[in-house]
User: Which sequence fits this backbone?
C-alpha cells in the first residue's frame, strides 16, 4: 500500500486506536503493517499529540545549499595548499592553513573536501596495485 495514500492513513489510525484500547499490541501491529516497533511508537506519540494530522506523512523538501557549507574561496585555498604540500596529512594542512592563511577549519573538513574533489584519499584497488607491482608479496 502506498504510504502517502489516504487508505493507509486510515489504516494507521485504526491500528493505533486498537493499540490505545489495548485490543492489540504494538508488536502485533508492527508485524501486520510490516514496520518496526519504533515506527509504531513514533506514530502513537504523534497521534496522541496532534491527532490524525500527526499521521500525515509529508515529503521532505530540498533545502538548497547546506547552511554549513565551506565557502568556495576557502575550499580553493585548501586545494592549493594540499597540492603545494602534497606530502602533508590533514592535521599538518590544518596547521599550515591556520599559520599561512589564518583560516580555522577542522581537519575532518579538510579531509572531506580533498576526498570530494578527488585530490586525495581515493580508493585504489589492491588488485591493481599488485598487478602493477607496487606492492610486493613474499
Assistant:
Amino acid at each position: 500500500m502506498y504510504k502517502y495514500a489516504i487508505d493507509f492513513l486510515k489504516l494507521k489510525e485504526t491500528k493505533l486506536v486498537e493499540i490505545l484500547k489495548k485490543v492489540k499490541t504494538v508488536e502485533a501491529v508492527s508485524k501486520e503493517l510490516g514496520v518496526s516497533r519504533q515506527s509504531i511508537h513514533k506514530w502513537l506519540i504523534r497521534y496522541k499529540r496532534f491527532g490524525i494530522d500527526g499521521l500525515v506523512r509529508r515529503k521532505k523538501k530540498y533545502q538548497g545549499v547546506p547552511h554549513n557549507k565551506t565557502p568556495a574561496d576557502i575550499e580553493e585555498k585548501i586545494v592549493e595548499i594540499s597540492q603545494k604540500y602534497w606530502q602533508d596529512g590533514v592535521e599538518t594542512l590544518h596547521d599550515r592553513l591556520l599559520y599561512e592563511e589564518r583560516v580555522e577549519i577542522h581537519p575532518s573538513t579538510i579531509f572531506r573536501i580533498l576526498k570530494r574533489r578527488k585530490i586525495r584519499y581515493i580508493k585504489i584497488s589492491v588488485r591493481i596495485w599488485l598487478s602493477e607491482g607496487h606492492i610486493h608479496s613474499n
Observations:
- The chain is about 55% helix and 0% strand.
- The helical segments are 6-20, 26-33, 37-50, 72-84, 90-101, 107-116, 126-132.
